[in-house]
Amino acid sequence: MESLKLPPQPPITTRVSIKGFEAAKLRAFAHHRTQTQEWEPLRKLVASQGDAEVFSLVGAPDGLSEDDLFQGI
Asked: What is the pTM assigned to this prediction?
């Protein structure tokens, strides 16, 4: 069987501070019972992110760097 090849990740274009909201994010996620099987991976992800969450705007112009998901709206 051929191994699955994932497409390359798009560049990170947006970094949003989540400082002070990490615990609230985990509490909110815990209320979604259908997703609790992902609890440990999510907890590790949140812990590894530090105080920023990152996003990629697909098709963004080269060099785009934002800190607000609603910038330009």
From this structure: 0.62
